[in-house]
Amino acid sequence: MLPESGSVLGVDVGWSLKQRSSAVCRLDWDGESVQWTIRRFTGQTELREAAMAEVIGSHPLLAAALDGPLRGDLAVVDRYRGCEKALSVKPIAGRISQPGSSRSPVGRLLNHHTNEFARLVIDSGRLRAASHAHAIHPLALAEAFPTSFLGLLHPDPEKGLRVRRSDRYYEAAVADGVLDRLLGHHLPGRKLEQSFETVTNHDDSAALVCAITALGVARNDYTTVGDDDGWIILPPADFIADWARPLVADWN
Prior knowledge:
- The protein is of the alpha/beta class.
- 37% of the residues lie in helices and 17% in strands.
- It has one domain (6-245).
- It contains 9 helices and 8 strands.
C-alpha cells in the first residue's frame, strides 16, 4: 500500500548539449488528487543539475525510475544484458520493438548518463530506502523502459516504423484510457489534476511514464525481467495486454 500522500520521480535520460532531450517528472499525490511537474533540459551539466534539483526540491521520493541501463553499483554495464535479451525475443520485439544492447556505442553512452542522473538523485538525499522485491540498490532506484512499458499495455500494437514508435504507443494508451486506469489502480479515489492528452512532447511523456513506473516500484506492483545486471520494470500483471501475458508469465 502507498501512503496517503507522497511523490515519485521519473527521468528520461538524454545527453544532447543543444537539444532539450532530457526530462524529469515528479508525480505527487495526496488523499484527494494526483498531479505532476515536468521539466525538459539539455545535457549541459549545470542545466541538468539545476533542473533535477528544482524538480526534486524538498520532496521525499518513494521511488525513482530512470530510462537507461542501470546497475545498483552504478558500474559500467558494457554487455548484452538478460533483460535486453528477454525483451528482444521475436514474439515481443516483433510487436513492440526492443531495447538496444548496453554494449553498443549508444548503449554505453546511455548507461553513462543514466549513472550520472542516478548519482544526482542519490546525492539529493531525498530518495527513500528500497522495499520492492527486485531492488538493485539500498535506495528505491529502478530502471524504466517506456517503449516496452507502453507496448505491453497495448491490446494490438503494430511495430511499424521506428520513428515516433513510443509516441504512437503513448497516444494509444491515452486514447484507450489505460494510463488513467493504471493511475487509478495505484492511487484509487483521487482526482487527476492534469490530462495525459496535454503531454505531447516525446521526452516529457517518456519522463511521465518513468514516473508511473516508479509508482509501481513504490507500491511493489509490477512485472519485471532481468538479473544482477539490472531489472527493467514493466506494468503490473493485471495490465499486461492479453497477447503478451503468456510471454511474460515466467518473469519476476
